[in-house]
Amino acid sequence: MSWKRIAELKGVLEREQGAIIKDWGGRLPIALIYPNTYHVGMSSLGLHTVYRLFNAHDDVACERVFWDKGALPLSVESQRPLADFAVLAFTISYELDYLNLVQMLRAAGIPLRAEERDREEPLLIAGGPAVTANPEPLALICDALAIGEGEAIIPALLDALRQGIAADRSELWKMLATIPGLYVPPWPAQALPVERQWLRDLNTAPAATVIYTTSTEFGDRTLIEVSRGCGRGCRFCLAGFCYRPPRERSVESLLAQAQAGLHYRDRVGLVGAAVSDYSRINELVSGLRELGAGLSVSSLRVDPLPEALLQALAESGTRTLTIAPEAGSQRLRTMINKGVSEDDVLRATEAAARYGFAQLKLYFMLGLPGETDDDVQAMVDLSLAVADRFRRQVTVNLTPFVPKAHTPFQRAAMAEADTLQARINHGQRALRRRGVTVRTESPAWAEVQGTLARGDRHIGAALLALERPTLSGWRKALAAAQVDPRTYLDEWPPERSLPWQVVSSGVNAAYLRREWQRAKAGRETEPCPSEGCRQCGVC
């Protein structure tokens, strides 16, 4: 064991506020693992929420573990190795972190296959947005996969672990398979599909920063979840379909969480799929300002863009405003059901300039279904129109489109890496010569994400063969598993079965097919109404 690494983690712990440290005597030790760096993981409100949920139980000792390239995985709280824990609970937001998960298990000396581990080895559970959408790539590795939201699954999960953690592994699998929202691949008798679980009333379970550290992107603020899910129905969006129906927290509960957070930080970061859609945003903003809280937000739609929110952000010293047109042409924005016009974007730009923000960020996807060179040029033209109206720093982020399970685009083809790179290059040249900063993501890595997002157990076999979490290591693993990645990246015909049908998001298949047809016909769909809708099946 590396004493240097232990000393580093003790230093991390000393710089934190709010970490929960328990003696292990008589308690169930759970490692909550975020398979990415501490800096990235501590920015995840999901990690904070699950940490609080586990540690709310006196007979549970939950400690955090993060991936650190080449280092032995040890917990932050007690610097123990993974093998010391009874349960390893991975929370995974992004498919690419599957590669780090494999590396962490290898480094810890834990067998990768669920069926190779007995009751003397830790039980492996994984959850999070990527897993909820499609658990199959991890089905050979994990004992159980959580489909849905932690608040709705963890109480029953802990009851089962209390009863069965010392039992033979097959007995524990059988017990776990009876819990709503738990997919247990090693137990073949489980009834499928597993239904996604979701929390009906957000006010019953707060979701806010638990541990404060400056060693993360949002270390200067208390993060608070305002709402969950989104009813806009953007056809590419995993969160918009796997977190239905849209739900909100009350202003009263949010202000109470903010007041508690102000003991640690003087800023509050509002988190949600589209914070500006919150139905009582003006009232919330007013209440936060009365408390003396500075404000930031995770995301804004340009329609609506509440003036009170913009003013509060400006007065709080927020320097950057972020909006996501997603596509440059109105044709493509209609096709993806974005519900935003060029005029909306330009009005938001003028408002950002009026309130004196230092930077405006724009997010676009490249490689959307049906995209042409004309659409890419429209993205350039729209970005330049924004730059003409916003004379400070404009940053354009170009991200390859990756089709995701349980969305209307789940069968769509992913553009080839060479095509994506050519379009990225065109955007970079045209924008940078006009002084616009351009940030891009790798098409090659996007292809890896695409294979994992729509993967099955053949992709799981490639994960088992993975020796290093690099591009070359992944390609070598695919070859060892005799997998052609284009099988997963090309368009999926209607007759091809979907690996993720082992779980149900609650959105019925007919609705997704209808939305795909409406996209190809260039027809928009109205956002979810506040109540009384039965169209998609979730409610």
Short descriptors:
539 residues; alpha/beta; Rossmann fold; Transcription Regulator spoIIAA; 6-stranded mixed β-sheet; 17 strands
Characterize the structure shown.
With 539 residues, the chain is of the alpha/beta class. Among the domains are: 3-195, Rossmann fold, CATH 3.40.50; 319-454 and 492-522, Transcription Regulator spoIIAA (2-Layer Sandwich). It contains 20 helices and 17 strands. The protein has helices at residues 3-14, 38-41, 45-55, 97-108, 129-133, 150-164, 169-176, 238-242, 251-261, 281-290, 307-315, 330-335, 342-354, 373-389, 417-432, 443-453, 457-465, 471-480, 486-489, 509-520; strands spanning 28-34, 60-66, 87-91, 123-127, 144-146, 182-183, 194-195, 222-225, 227-228, 247-248, 267-271, 294-297, 320-326, 359-366, 393-400, 437-440, 503-504. It has a six-stranded mixed β-sheet with strand order 2-1-3-4-5-6. It has a four-stranded parallel β-sheet with strand order 13-14-15-16, with helices on one face. A three-stranded parallel β-sheet has the order 8-11-12. Strand 4, helix 5 and strand 5 (144-146) form a beta-alpha-beta unit. Helix 13 (342-354) packs parallel to helix 14. The longest helix has 17 residues, at 373-389. It is globular, with a radius of gyration of 23 Å. It starts with a helix and ends in a 19-residue tail after the last helix.
